[in-house]
Write a structure and sequence with these properties.
- The protein is an alpha/beta fold.
- It folds into two domains: 17-242, P-loop containing nucleotide triphosphate hydrolases (Rossmann fold), CATH 3.40.50.300; 248-340, no CATH class.
- It has eleven helices and 14 strands.
- It has helices at residues 65-72, 99-105, 127-138, 145-158, 164-167, 177-188, 207-224, 235-241, 259-264, 269-276, 315-319; strands at residues 2-5, 8-11, 20-32, 38-50, 54-58, 80-89, 92-93, 110-113, 195-199, 227-231, 244-249, 252-258, 325-328, 331-333.
- It has an eight-stranded mixed sheet, with helices on both faces.
- Strand 1 (2-5) and strand 2 (8-11) form a beta hairpin.
């Protein structure tokens, strides 16, 4: 059962499903350049996701959010490489599956909505081909064209595309960004997957269309009891659609917890900085930027990667890297100074 408080969605724990769908353990993904210098884009990623939950992932560009989605699906290609860790989907270690077995999961049990509104779309193929492809690939018997056409039209109708029959005959260039994004969501949900990964699904859309896509995702989640990973830059989008929130910085998750705790009581200095820098969320009169710049992944600082920009840093912060520790129930923070940092005064 989901309760709404303003623009924040909370899960009623007494009704929440407790089936573990996804568990990521110590995931590490590196990128190599021409000189074989390692870029530790993802380092020690850990989280759990239960049936019906949505995990929102926030962080600046370049911290590894999209690479995390691709790593879960084992879609990393050279010069990227998954260096270690485990990903369990409904109890199965995905990284121990052969490629054929993994292909059986992609597009069937796990759906992906890519960042670009036309990403993954063949400009020479119509929407019947694009949307119907996951069903065709995973069908036990070769489906006939009429069957695929009927299913596609039905699916396009479910994502509220007007005139779905006519839309099924169109090509990507004949539709708007919002329409293409709806098609991509319809495609990702074609086989009723257990897990949907949506990477910046509204980032390239205007406000009105973005609101329609957000409403669509919320509706699809409720109808199909979807488990989702939602990657976004927008704090409002994450708050509205997520049950749990993970904050990423310099390749690590530095804070993770239930959405209410994260937005009303962020405990990591970087998380507080994100909120103070957001005009729509920062307490009135307290808008301020985060000092400094994000570190180069070729030479991350020792200790806590955020310490050069942190006003609360002490010597220990520059030497030892903190791990995620439970600050309160279901709220974990990687910071040596958590207990000394002033409480964030939410004003929304």
């Amino acid at each position: 059962m989901v309760k709404s408080f303003g623009w924040i969605s909370l899960v009623d724990d007494s009704k929440a499903e407790k089936e573990l769908i996804l568990e990521v353990k110590d995931l590490r993904t590196y990128i190599y350049d021409e000189d074989e210098i390692v870029l530790k884009i993802l380092e020690g990623i850990n989280f759990k996701l239960y049936k019906g939950e949505t995990l929102g992932i926030l962080g600046p560009s370049g911290v590894g959010k999209s690479l995390l989605a691709l790593s879960i699906l084992k879609l990393i290609k050279w010069p990227g490489k998954i260096e270690g860790g485990e990903v369990f989907f409904k109890g199965t270690n995905l990284f121990k599956l052969d490629e054929e077995s993994f292909d059986d999961l992609r597009g069937k049990e796990i759906g992906l909505v890519m960042q670009n509104t036309t990403g993954g779309m063949d400009p020479l193929r119509d929407m019947t081909y694009t949307t119907g492809q996951p069903y065709k690939v995973h069908a036990e018997d070769e489906p006939v064209k009429a069957e695929i056409k009927a299913l596609v039209v039905s699916q396009l109708g479910k994502v509220s595309l007007p005139q779905p029959t006519e839309t099924s005959d169109k090509y990507a260039h004949q539709m708007s960004g919002g329409e293409n994004q709806r098609v991509k969501i319809a495609t990702a949900l074609m086989n009723n997957p257990t897990l949907l990964i949506a990477d910046e699904p509204v980032s390239n859309l205007d406000t009105t269309v973005a609101r329609m896509i957000m409403n669509l995702l919320a509706d699809m989640k409720e109808k199909f009891n979807l488990t989702m990973i939602l990657i976004a830059h927008n704090l409002g989008v994450i708050a509205e659609l997520s049950d749990k929130v993970a904050i990423m910085y310099a390749g690590k998750i530095i804070e993770i917890g239930d959405v209410e705790a994260m937005y009303y009581n962020p405990r990591h200095p970087f998380t507080q900085g994100l909120f103070f820098a957001s005009p729509s969320i920062a307490p009135r009169g307290k808008l301020k930027p985060i000092p400094g710049v994000e570190p180069d992944p070729r030479k991350y600082p020792t200790g806590c990667h955020f310490h050069p920009r942190c006003e609360y840093a002490i010597e220990k912060c520059s030497i030892d890297q903190p791990s995620l520790e439970e600050n309160e129930k279901n709220h974990f923070v990687a910071c040596w100074r958590t207990k000394d940092i002033p409480k964030y005064e939410a004003d929304f």
